[in-house]
Amino acid sequence: MENQTEQHGDPDKMLNSKLEREKAEQKRTRTVAIVFGLIVTLALVALTYGFVQKRSADERVKLLQASSDSLKLKLEECAQMARMQQMQAHQAAIQAHEAQRQAEEALRKHKK
Q1: Measured between alpha carbons, how far is 109 from 112 in angstroms, rounded to an integer?
Q2: If you ran DSSP here, which 8-state letter would residue 66 be given?
Q3: Sequence-separated (6 or more) residues with CB below 8 Å from residue 71
Q4: What is the pLDDT of residue 8?
Q5: Residue 51: which pLDDT band, with cuts at 50, 70 and 90?
Q6: DSSP codes of every residue in 4-71
Q7: For the whole model, what pTM was predicted?
Q8: pLDDT tens digits, residue range 60-82?
Q9: 3-state secondary structure of 1
Q10: Structure letter (DSSP) for residue 97
C-alpha cells in the first residue's frame, strides 16, 4: 500500500499544488482583466476628450465663418465706396480740365 502512495504522491500535496496553480491562474486572469479595464478606460477618456475638442473646434469654425462673412460685407462696402470715390475723382478731373480749358479760352480772348 505504501508503494501506491509513493507512486501517486500525497493526495493533500497534490490538492494543494492544484489549488496553488488555480490561484496563480486566477491572479493572472485578474491582472489581465485589470489591464484591459485600464486600457478601455483610457480609450474612453481619449474618445471623450476628442469629442469635446471637436465640438470646440466646430464652434470656433462657426464664429470664424460669421466673422468672415462680416468681413466680406465690409470689403464689398469698401470696394463700392472706392468705386464711387473713383467716379467722383474722375468727374472732378473732367470738371477741372473743363475749367482749365475755359480759363485758357478766356485768357486768349482777353489778350486779343
Answers
A1: 5
A2: H
A3: none
A4: 61
A5: very high
A6: HHHHH--HHHHHHHHHHHHHHHHHHHHHHHHHHHHHHHHHHHHHHHHHHHHHHHHHHHHHHHHHHHHH
A7: 0.51
A8: 999 999 999 999 999 999 999 99
A9: coil
A10: H
